[in-house]
User: Which sequence fits this backbone?
C-alpha cells in the first residue's frame, strides 16, 4: 500500500478515546508503552530515547513505562503524576490514550483524564488483587458514563500464569461492580512487561480464548458518548464584524441543527429560525455534535455568551437547585454555604453547596453520612445557584450535565460535578414562612353565580388518540350551552409554564403536578376544566386526583389502538420515535398505563367526535356538573 492510500485509510478509521487507570504499580504506563511498541506506534527516535533512559537507570531490558512517564519527577519516583496523552493508529482504528495516575493523591487527574473517554482500561495486579484505588477508579469511570470497561489483570507472569488466580480476581471484581452503571465489562489476562495478550496472543495462557487487548480495542463497538438527539448550542461568542452580519459562535454540545429549523433561545424563550449555518469551510445545511460553527438567526434577538440555542419542543432543564455527584479535587475540604463559582458550558454562575447528602465508600459502594468532602472523596451534594443554568441529566447528556466548581478567591478548580437531578423546590415542601389565605367567597356562591359545578375532566390517552380534538369540541359545546370552561392542553403548557421540563419519568411527574395545581385553581374559581395530556403513568394521575380532589376529578380514557394512533400521527412524532430521534416516546419506547376504572371510556378508534362529545356531556349531566335541563345558552 502506498503512503497516500495508507493516510487515506487512517483518516477514514474510527477514533477511540480510552484511558488507563488503577492502583500504584499496577503497570499502567508499562502496558501503554508495550502497546505502542507492539502496535508500531513509536518512532525510531522515541524508541532510542527510551532505550537510553532505561540504560541510564541501570536496566538491561527496555522500561516501557518511560514512554509515557515523561516528567523528571515521574522517572525518579517511578510513578505517574500527570495525565500523559499518546496518539497511535492501526489499519482498523485510530486511538487517543490517556495514561492517568494511580496514586490516591492524583485521583483528580484520573477523573479529568477520563472525562472524554469511550473506554477505560482498569489494571489489577494479579499478585496483589483488587485494591481500593482500582475500585475507586472503576467507580469514577462508571459515574463518568464511560460505556466500556476493560479489566486487565496484569503481571500474570508473577502468578505462574494461573487460570485460577485470574478467575478468582474476575469474580471478585464482578461481585464488587454489580452495583455500577456499566453495561460492558471485559476481563483480559496480560503481562505488560513481556507483551502477553497485549498485541499478540500469549503462549503461556492457552486456557484463555478471548481477544488480546489491542484486538478488543480495535473491535469494541463505538456507540459514541455524544447525544445526537437533544440539540444544545451554548453560545460562546457573538460575532458582529459589521452592521450586516450577526452570528453566534460555539460548539454544538449535542444533537443536530438544520437550516430553516425553528429554535428557541434560552433563557429569554424567544423563538426564531436558523437562517445560516457557517462551518470552517463555509455555509452548510446542517451541523452536529461536536462541530464548531456559527449560527445566524432570522430574527434580531438579544443573545449573549452563556445563552443556549435549542430545538423548540426539546428543552433542557432550567434549574437553580440541582443535585450532583462531585469528585472533590482540592486540599481544602468542601464547606457548606461557602461561595463557589459553577462553570457550566459557556456560563459561569455564583453558587454554594447547600447540603452534602452522603459520601460514597468506593471499597464497598456504601453511602456514608457526611457534612463535607475531602480531597479525592466522592459524594452527592445539593447546589443552590444564584442564576439558573440550562442543563440535562449527565447520563443523558455529558456536555450539559457536567460542570466544575471553582474557588473564587484562588481561581482554582475544587471539584468536578455531574448533574443527576434538579430539585423541584415548589413541589418539594421547601418553601417556608408562607401561609395559605382564603377569601370570603365560597365555592357554592361561585357555582350559583356560574350555574355549574366545578370539575376537571382528565382526558388521557396515547398521542394521536384524539384527546385535544375531543377536548376542544367539548369546550365548544359547553360554551354554546352557556357554561364557563377552559381547556388545558399539554403542548400549550409546555410552551410556557412547563417549558423547562423534558420527558423523563421525573419530568413527566412534575409536568402533571403543575397541571393539576393549575386545574385546582380553575376549579376553585368555579370553572369546568378539560385537560388533554398523555399522562401515561397511573401514579401521576392518582397524584393529580389527590391535588384536585376526588369529588371534582373525572378520568376519561380516550382509547385508540396504537396502530391507529400511528396511522394518524398528526405531529409526525411516531415516525421520529421509530427512527430513534425521540427517545422514551410513549407507546414506542416508553410504557402507557391505561386507566383501570375510568369514569369514561371513549373509544376514539371506532367512533366519531360528535358521539364522544355527546357521551361526555351525558356523564357530566349525570354527575350534576351541568344542568340536565339546559339545552342552549341563556337568551339564545
Assistant:
Amino acid at each position: 500500500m502506498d503512503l497516500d492510500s495508507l493516510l487515506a485509510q487512517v483518516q477514514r478509521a474510527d477514533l477511540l478515546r480510552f484511558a488507563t487507570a488503577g492502583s500504584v504499580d499496577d503497570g499502567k504506563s508499562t502496558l501503554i508503552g508495550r502497546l505502542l511498541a507492539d502496535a508500531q506506534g513509536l518512532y525510531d527516535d522515541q524508541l532510542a530515547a527510551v532505550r537510553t533512559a532505561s540504560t541510564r537507570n541501570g536496566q538491561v531490558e527496555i522500561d516501557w513505562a518511560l514512554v509515557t512517564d515523561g516528567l523528571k519527577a515521574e522517572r525518579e519516583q517511578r510513578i505517574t503524576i500527570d495525565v500523559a496523552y499518546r496518539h497511535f493508529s492501526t489499519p482498523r482504528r485510530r486511538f487517543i490514550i490517556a495514561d492517568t495516575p494511580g496514586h490516591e493523591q492524583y485521583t483528580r487527574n484520573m477523573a479529568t483524564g477520563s472525562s472524554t473517554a469511550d473506554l477505560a482500561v482498569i489494571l489489577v495486579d494479579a499478585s496483589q488483587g483488587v485494591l481500593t484505588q482500582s475500585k475507586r477508579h472503576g467507580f469514577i469511570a462508571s459515574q463518568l458514563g464511560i460505556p466500556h470497561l476493560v479489566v486487565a489483570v496484569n503481571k500474570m507472569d508473577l502468578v505462574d500464569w494461573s487460570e485460577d488466580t485470574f478467575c478468582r480476581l474476575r469474580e471478585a471484581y464482578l461481585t464488587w461492580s454489580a452495583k455500577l452503571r456499566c453495561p460492558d465489562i471485559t476481563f483480559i489476562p496480560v503481562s505488560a512487561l513481556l507483551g502477553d495478550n497485549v498485541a499478540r496472543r500469549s503462549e503461556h495462557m492457552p486456557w484463555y480464548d478471548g481477544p488480546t487487548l489491542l484486538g478488543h480495542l480495535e473491535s469494541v463497538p463505538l456507540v459514541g458518548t455524544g447525544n445526537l438527539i437533544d440539540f444544545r448550542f451554548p453560545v460562546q461568542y457573538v460575532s458582529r464584524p459589521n452592521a450586516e452580519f450577526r452570528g453566534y459562535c460555539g460548539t454544538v454540545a449535542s444533537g443536530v441543527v438544520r437550516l430553516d429549523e425553528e429554535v428557541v433561545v434560552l433563557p429569554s424563550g424567544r423563538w426564531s429560525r436558523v437562517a445560516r449555518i457557517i462551518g470552517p469551510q463555509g455555509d452548510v445545511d446542517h451541523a452536529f455534535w461536536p462541530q464548531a460553527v456559527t449560527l445566524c438567526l432570522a430574527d434580531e434577538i438579544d443573545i449573549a455568551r452563556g445563552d443556549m440555542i435549542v430545538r423548540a419542543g426539546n428543552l433542557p432543564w432550567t434549574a437553580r437547585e440541582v443535585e450532583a455527584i462531585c469528585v472533590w479535587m482540592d486540599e481544602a475540604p468542601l464547606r457548606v454555604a461557602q461561595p463557589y463559582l459553577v462553570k457550566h458550558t459557556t456560563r459561569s454562575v455564583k453558587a454554594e453547596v447547600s447540603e452534602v447528602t452522603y459520601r460514597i465508600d468506593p471499597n464497598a459502594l456504601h453511602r456514608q453520612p457526611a457534612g463535607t468532602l475531602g480531597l479525592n472523596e466522592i459524594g452527592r451534594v445539593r447546589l443552590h445557584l444564584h442564576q439558573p443554568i440550562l442543563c440535562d441529566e449527565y447520563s443523558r447528556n455529558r456536555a450539559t450535565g457536567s460542570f466544575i466548581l471553582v474557588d473564587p478567591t484562588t481561581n482554582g478548580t475544587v471539584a468536578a460535578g455531574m448533574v443527576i437531578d434538579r430539585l423541584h423546590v415548589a413541589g418539594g415542601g421547601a418553601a417556608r414562612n408562607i401561609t395559605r389565605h382564603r377569601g370570603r367567597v365560597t365555592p357554592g356562591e361561585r357555582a350559583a353565580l356560574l350555574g355549574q359545578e366545578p370539575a376537571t375532566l382528565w382526558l388521557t390517552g396515547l398521542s394521536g388518540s384524539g384527546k385535544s380534538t375531543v377536548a376542544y369540541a367539548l369546550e365548544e359545546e359547553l360554551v354554546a350551552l352557556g357554561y364557563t370552561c377552559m381547556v388545558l392542553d399539554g403542548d400549550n403548557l409546555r410552551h410556557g409554564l412547563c417549558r423547562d421540563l423534558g420527558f423523563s419519568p421525573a419530568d413527566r411527574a412534575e409536568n402533571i403536578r403543575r397541571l393539576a395545581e393549575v386545574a385546582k385553581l380553575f376549579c376553585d374559581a368555579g370553572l369546568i376544566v378539560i385537560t388533554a395530556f398523555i399522562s401515561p403513568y397511573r401514579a401521576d394521575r392518582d397524584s393529580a386526583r389527590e391535588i384536585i380532589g376526588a369529588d371534582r376529578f373525572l378520568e376519561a380514557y380516550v382509547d385508540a389502538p396504537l396502530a391507529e394512533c400511528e396511522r394518524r400521527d398528526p405531529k409526525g412524532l411516531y415516525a421520529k420515535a421509530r427512527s430513534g430521534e425521540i427517545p422514551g416516546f410513549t407507546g414506542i419506547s416508553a410504557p402507557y398505563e391505561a386507566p383501570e376504572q375510568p369514569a369514561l371510556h371513549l373509544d376514539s378508534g371506532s367512533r366519531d367526535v360528535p358521539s364522544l362529545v355527546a357521551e361526555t356531556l351525558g356523564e357530566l349531566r349525570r354527575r350534576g356538573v351541568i344542568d340536565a335541563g339546559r339545552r342552549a345558552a341563556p337568551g339564545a
User: Anything to note?
Assistant: Residues 251 and 614 are 54 Å apart (CA to CA).
